[in-house]
Amino acid sequence: MSTDIQILLINIALTLTTLLLIALGIHLILVLREIRRAVRKIYFVLESFEKAGVNAKEGMEEIVGFLNGVKTAIKLASKVKKTKIKNG
Q1: Residue 2 has what DSSP assignment?
Q2: Which of 16, 37, 49, 88 has a 20 to 30 A CA-CA distance from 72?
Q3: Around 74, how many Cα atoms within 13 Å sit in the side-chain half-sphere?
Q4: Alpha-carbon distance 7 to 13, whole Å?
Q5: Residue range 19-67, pLDDT digits in tens
Q6: Model pTM?
């Protein structure tokens, strides 16, 4: 083989290798973009769950507060009733 053919084959191999690496780099960039989008969606879903949990917690606190108010009103009514019975 002459050196011209060897240089040509080396240039072809380097060109193919370079093109392959460029294609792999572009593919890697596209995959990373897709992962970034997926992570964003997951973040928004988790944020929505967190907001729903906080709202549920606040709702439960309101229900418990209401029930405590009813309980207090019943105790008060019971005391008023006992007082009326005693006073006659």
Answers
A1: -
A2: 88
A3: 6
A4: 10
A5: 999 999 999 999 999 999 999 999 988 888 888 777 777 778 888 888 8
A6: 0.53
